[in-house]
Amino acid sequence: MAAKVFIDGEVGTTGLQIRERLMGRRDLTLISLPEARRKDAGARAAALAEADVAILCLPDEAAREAVALCADHDTRLIDASTAHRVDPAWVFGFPEMTAGQAALVAAASRVSNPGCYSTCAIALLRPLRAAGLIGANLPVSIFGISGYSGGGKAMIAEFEHGEAAGSFIYATTQAHKHLPEIRRYGHLDVLPIFVPSVGQFAQGMVVQIPLHPEQFTGLMTDLHAALADHYSEGFVSVRALGDNPAREMPQALNGTNRLELAVLGDAATGRVVLSATLDNLGKGASGAAVQNLNLMLGLPADSGLV
Fold it and tell me: Taking all residues of the chain, what is their mean pLDDT, rounded to a whole number?
């Protein structure tokens, strides 16, 4: 029997992308509410109760309310908001993060989908921490650029209707919502400095972490080996050492659920830039949710994904 899936918030940017990836699949049945009832608590509660798995594509407070609506039934949840990302009662939905994480996701009743920026940063940091190549007290600096679709419908309209003045840097107060999860799952004791920016393109993302040789143990080759050994399967891959293109293209993986890592820099001086590229609406949001859904339902992780 096909599993029943309800996307609570299906008309938002992430929800629409998830729905697009699930449409036409014979192993799933999508539960949908008419437009007039999408904010009706009773209708939402009934849809949540009917579903085998519900995916919450909602603001944080609305996501918490949806969880409360599920208190009396067995619906399993994937939350795409920030609300539960560092809650120990929820499994962090980055299956490739560490050995056994995919199994934890598969068995979970509550899965918190990672943020796009944090997926990139954690993917780079976690293996290096596990290998002892960087310390927990490392004062990490993270820089990134994302397509404007990451800002949701309001920012999309701002850029596509010509209201945006151009690319910009934001979150300079160092209170970005992804920082707690980067610290927790990157196994850092110190909150990183994080400088994200929005580019004049719809989707795609590059995140980079610079390191001086005094900030890590070993050589540039050791950093690359640790990443390559860690990601031997799944949607995460590591580019060959020395693959230093003239430009890092944020849109390179658009339309996919892939995450590509690279160790860039100058071997002679030991100055390194760790780099991660993904589609902020793919592995950074909706693709990751579909991957987690597949695991929770015991289906191939790549069903409906490329």
Answer: 92
Q: Which of 57, 70, 116, 120 is catalytic?
A: 116
Task: Please name the residue ranges forming H helices in 23-151.
Answer: 41-50, 60-69, 101-107, 116-130
| pTM for this predicted structure | 0.93
Q: Which domains are delineated in the chain? A: 3-114+284-296 (3.40.50.720), 116-280 (3.30.360.10)
Would residue 120 show up in a list of annotated catalytic residues for this protein? Answer: no
Tens digits of residue pLDDT in 230-276: 998 789 999 999 888 888 899 999 999 999 999 999 999 999 999 99
- pLDDT tens-digit readout, 11-68: 888 989 999 999 888 899 999 888 777 777 788 888 889 999 999 999 999 999 999 9
Residue 197 phi, psi (nearest 5):
-145, 160
> Looking at the predicted structure, is the pLDDT value of residue 129 above 80?
yes
Non-local (6+) Cβ contacts of 250 within 8 A are: 145, 146, 147, 199, 201, 204, 205, 206, 277
150: tokens are 């990451």
9 φ/ψ sector (left φ>0, alpha ψ -120 to 50, else beta): left
| Helix, strand, coil percent content, the chain, rounded in steps of 5 | 35, 20, 45
